[in-house]
Write a structure and sequence with these properties.
The chain contains 15 helices and 31 strands. The chain is α+β, with helices and mostly antiparallel strands.
């Protein structure tokens, strides 16, 4: 009797540092397949693999698979740290999920020194108990040399750093002056009072706004966006490079821009006091925040003032008389902006907009690029004004061109999976909350109601993070599927064409419609549809890489900052519970892991996956997400991108404080200062 042949499937392997991994399937809404460590079969992180199912999915666990063949390797070069021996060397990859160190024969070491950051080309992949083998093709520099850490991230993710000379030359040939002959085809708004409002260190200013009120109490909001498509022509060298990059990448002391600085900081940037071409969206908005009428058109503007979030906020809350005096002629404009932003936000919250309280990190570097401070990035209502104005402009443009059936790129954020919501509800039950949904009725309002219920409590930030993990990742698509997170049926990215390619592409589509009086031949529409599908995919891929690179850069700098904080005690919040310990986030946004062995009292902890808790086997002590705990920093290593904490009991802190007081007493002759 013939043995039944097992069905082979394909997917992408995502490794875990501990040896096991998961296979991502290409089918939409398909669950990942768990791969035990003994079934990985030398596959490395990111490889395309062929596998067979060995266990089917149950209510309690994922389906399991066994990799039988690697079809395509993701990487043939790796960035890592060189470790030297007398007769050979090896490279420890920066990507801890890569799965193997790489052996380097002496003849292939290329004069690399101990602890140099290097790029190694893989000559042989691991097989039958043997390590991968490779040769060093580039020495980046010493591990502690200024800037090498960020350069390593750039190389690890293969980010396009410098522009090719032919692209740079094309950018330099673009005039930095407005072409007078094209003004006649645009609405001349150079007499309007218009503002840019950005962070103080922003250089690529691609959006400007103005607000006025009509006699019948309607608001007119004008959102002006840099007309990048006027300068970056379809099929040009600049355009091809922008497609390849997809997005700008921001890494503290450096930006890897989508466009050369001659455009991003020059003729396309809406700098104050100079004429600039723009693509403008004007909206008439009523007292309930509804867009009653809208128009999109080509314009020429001259920004009145370049404002910062900080200065606008100080004007709105009367906290800086000097700033208020400097801009007193425009205070009424900022008050009107504040008024409209409140209306728009109120309407959005009623719709179910997810106002997640997840602070961003602000990392301060010294002149050598070393992290000297980590703190929360301050968000004020001035930031909120611009966010609300950009959201409504993006929605208005998306809805208009959806009904025109135009080829377009939408920003899509689909509703979360019902099963994942139920998992989250098992945790929320512990704090008396629930996302009230059914399989056929999953609405953003159910999520926003939970956020509203925990607002102002100690759970607010933790619940925001938990709900974020429940949601799907937003992406670009040529088909409109709505945006769950902002509770919107139509959404696109229109407002940042300097730094995102989808925005630039839809600017080009809009410009075609305007120049052809909204009548475009079918063959041209078909070509645009094809490009929309292609660019949506490539832009989503580029965004994923950029996000990973920015996250890795942030982890490195946070670990670097904490390296001289070993032994210090802080208070933090339990942000995540795992089967090997718990993560704790400090007030300054730094997060570290407390492993079981660093939780004190030599206790064994039982992990309750459903309730996301740890329970001490001996003491029955329970740790939950959201608990406030005291920690001591026990390890920080920027090369490993790792921060470890140890749990500190309150009586230990009291003893430590007492010991310090006694020590000070000895130093000051018995007087405790």
């Amino acid at each position: 009797m013939k043995k039944k042949k097992k069905h082979l499937k394909e997917g992408i392997f995502r490794a875990n540092e501990k040896g096991f991994g998961f296979i991502e399937l290409q089918e939409e809404k398909a669950d990942d397949i768990f791969v035990p460590a003994n079934c990985v079969n030398h596959a490395l992180n990111g490889d395309v693999v062929q596998f067979i199912m060995i266990k089917q999915k149950t209510k309690e666990r994922r389906a399991e698979g066994k990799i039988v063949k690697v079809l395509q390797r993701e990487k043939d070069t790796v960035v890592g740290m060189f470790q030297k021996s007398r007769n050979f060397g090896f490279v420890v990859p920066d990507d801890k999920k890569f799965g193997t160190d790489i052996f380097v024969a002496k003849k292939y070491c290329k004069q690399a020194k101990q602890n140099d950051k290097v790029i190694v080309k893989i000559l042989k992949y691991p097989e039958k108990g043997k390590s991968a083998e490779g040769k060093i093709i580039e020495v980046l520099g010493g591990v502690n040399q200024a800037g090498i850490d960020m350069l390593s991230v750039i190389k690890e993710f293969d980010l396009p750093n410098a522009f090719p000379s032919f692209v740079q030359e094309e950018a330099e040939n673009i005039t930095q002056e407005i072409d007078e002959k094209d003004i006649k085809d645009r609405r001349d708004l150079r007499g309007d009072i218009i503002f840019t409002i950005d962070g103080e260190d922003a250089k690529d200013l691609d959006d400007a706004v103005s607000v006025r009120k009509t006699k019948d109490n309607m608001y007119i909001l004008d959102v002006h966006i840099a007309d990048v498509s006027y300068y970056v022509k379809e099929g040009s060298l600049l355009d091809e490079e922008a497609v390849r990059r997809g997005t700008s990448v921001y890494m503290f002391d450096r930006v890897i821009p989508m466009l050369p600085t001659e455009l991003s900081n020059g003729i396309c940037s809406l700098n104050a006091g100079v004429d600039r071409f723009a693509l403008s969206c004007s909206m008439e908005i009523d007292q309930k925040g509804r867009v009653i009428a809208s128009d999109v058109y080509k314009s020429i503007i001259n920004v009145t003032e370049r404002m910062s979030y900080k200065d606008v906020y100080s004007i709105l809350n009367h906290s800086n008389e000097e700033v208020s005096e400097k801009y007193k002629a425009y205070i009424s404009h900022f008050k009107l902006m504040e008024e409209l932003a409140h209306i728009l936000k109120r309407k959005r919250l009623l719709q179910g907009y997810l106002n997640l309280d997840i602070p961003e990190s602000k990392i301060v570097l010294d002149e050598n690029g070393r992290a000297i401070d980590v703190k929360k990035y301050e968000i004020t209502f001035a930031n909120e004004i611009i966010e609300q104005f950009m959201l409504i402009a993006n929605e208005t443009i998306a809805e208009k061109f959806y009904w025109l059936e135009a080829p377009f790129i939408y920003r899509v954020h689909e509703e979360p999976d019902y099963d994942k919501i139920q998992e989250t509800n098992q945790f929320l039950f512990n704090i008396g909350q629930k996302i009230r949904v059914s399989k056929d009725n999953i609405r953003p309002k159910a999520f926003s109601d939970v956020l509203e219920n925990v607002k102002g409590t100690e759970y607010e930030k933790v619940i925001s993070t938990l709900l974020l993990r429940t949601l799907k990742v937003a992406r670009y698509e040529a088909e409109n599927k709505g945006h769950f997170g902002i509770a919107s049926s139509y959404y696109c990215h229109f407002t940042s064409p300097i730094r995102r390619y989808p925005d630039l592409f839809i600017h080009r589509v809009i410009s075609k419609y305007l120049s052809h009086n909204y009548h475009i031949e079918e063959d041209e529409l078909e070509e645009l549809r094809r490009k929309a599908i292609e660019y949506a995919k490539t832009s989503s891929d580029c965004e994923k890489i950029a996000t990973k690179a920015e996250r890795e850069a942030e982890d490195i700098k946070k670990a670097e900052y904490m390296e001289n904080k070993i032994g210090k005690v802080y208070t933090g919040i339990v942000s995540s519970i795992t089967s090997f310990g718990m993560f704790v986030e400090l007030e300054n946004t730094v997060e570290g892991l407390i492993r079981f062995e660093n939780m004190g009292h030599h206790e064994y902890f039982i992990y309750d996956e459903v309730r996301k808790t740890l329970i001490g086997e001996r003491t029955n002590r329970i740790f939950r997400i959201g608990d406030k705990v005291c920690i001591r920093v026990i390890e920080a290593n920027k090369m490993l991108r790792k921060i470890s904490f140890g749990l500190v009991e309150e009586n230990e802190i009291d003893e430590e404080k007492q010991n310090k007081e006694e020590e000070n007493s000895k130093k000051t002759g018995g007087i405790i200062l």
